Every structure is written in structure tokens, then in C-alpha cells.
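Weekly puzzle thread! Below is a chain. First person to post its structure in C-alpha cell form gets bragging rights.
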Amino acid sequence: MRNSDRLPPRELPKRRSGRHRNPLSFDNWFGTPALIMAVPGTAEQARGADGESIGARMADLVRAYRPEVTIRYGHVEGDEQTLAEALADLGPSDERPLGGVVVPLVTAPHRRVSAAIEDAAVRTGADVRVTEGLGPHPMLAEVLHLRLAEAGYVRADRMRLISVVARNTTMADGVVVGAVGGEGAVGAAGVTAVLLAARLGLTVLPADLENEASVEQIVGQLRQGGCRRPVIAPSALGPELSVGEMEAIAARFGARLGAPLGADSLLGKIAALRYAEVLNSLGVEQPPTAEELPAPVGSRHRPES
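Winning reply:
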């Protein structure tokens, strides 16, 4: 007779396979390439008030999603903690299918960062592949929403098709998604603007923060539509453009300025996804064979006597 006092046997979770498999699988494949994050700007520009680089904080966040991967970072400008140093020992090898995957810490195509990554890879002879930036992506729009909410410009909760604007002088009634990196960056910011508008129920438009004429045109367009409290939300982690430059642009056109994205766990998840996309596209991320796996240990695997 079964003992009702005993706990039921523990069932191990079944691993999903096929197209619905988790793209952030934690499995430790043999020969896993390194993940190198390319940080825009110099080490000094990427250093926060606490003295820690945004690259170091992002590395810790990405490690939570890819704990089995060697994670590094390097700055694309300057002479301190450079990207070339991070790529130095990743040349071609017969022991691994790929040396590393470079993830640019930018939210859209960025001409200067892309050129710096290509130059560093050529100079070091690194066997690497370069992913797309962190945007456009729905989670990027979520991080922008969070930064605006932290500043008190919008409500933190998400309400589709319903305006979340309060009738006071604090809440924004229009948002400019500020792009950095050129024409391609503005196009990507346009996608992010649509995603953010769906979250906020506000008019959200993209503009090039490095082109004052672009910002003037977009802010004017918002004002023509009845916007009286525009806010500029930089779609940038921070080192791409100094806070002083962004504040000057916002002040010139009578807009308030949101905080840069900074290091965020959602951005870390996007970086891990970009890494997985490259490996899956190359067929690198394959499970080990039965012969390569270590023998199981523990009470559940004791040999029969």
C-alpha cells in the first residue's frame, strides 16, 4: 500500500525543443565563443559617477543570462580598456569554430562605432562576428518608458490606446526619441518611437540628436499638434553623446530631457539574444554528444547492485 505521508517523487522539468526552445538556453556547449561588448566612446566617457564603466555593469547583467560564456568589454575610442585589447587573443583556432561575437552597445546602426569595431578586428586578426545593435527591439522601448517614468514624465504602468498624460505641468504630452549615430540610427529610432507610442498613448517621434535642425523640426511638429510639454528621451546608453550636449539641445528648443538608458537588465537580455542569434545562424551552438557528456552523479544515478 502506498504511504500517504511520503512526498510525491520530484519530476525534472522537460527541456523544450524545436522552434519554441528558449533562445537564452543556459546549456554549456563545448567551444562556446566569447562575448565581447563594444562600448562607444572612451573609458572616461563611459565611466559613471561611481567610477565604474558602463561596460563592466553590462557585463555583469549579461552574465546572468549567459553564465557559461566568457564575457569581455572594450571601448572603441581612447587608450584605456580598448576593444583591441579585448580581441587580442581571439584569432582563428582549430579548437573552436569561432573566436568571439562582438555586440555593439548602441541602440541602432552607428557609423563611428561600426568603423571602430571593423578596424580593431582587422588590426588584431580576431576571428569574430559582429551582431546588430540593441535596437530596435520591444524591450528597448520598455527601458525608455522606465527612464521617463523614473523622471516623473509619464506613468509607469502600461495602458494601450488610453492616454496616460495627467493634466499638470509635470507629465509629458509628447516625446522625442533622440537617435545618435546617423541616418540609420534615426530609422531605427522611428521603430522604437512606434513601440513607445503604443505603450504611452502619446505622440512619439524620432529625431537626430546630432542634428539640431532635425530636433527643431520634430519639436515644432509636436507643438503644431498641440504639445506643450515635450520631452526628449535619448535612445542611447550614455557614452555616445555627453549629457551637457543633450541638455543644451533640450534647453534651446524648450524641451525637457530624459535620462540616457544606462546599464539595464533588459538591455543585457537583448545583448544575450543578439549573441545567441549569431551562434544559431552559424550552427555553432550545438549540444555535445553523449560521449562528450560527463557521467551522471548522485543518488538518482547509483548503479544497480
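Puzzle host: Confirmed. Bonus trivia for everyone else. The first helix runs from residue 54 to 63.
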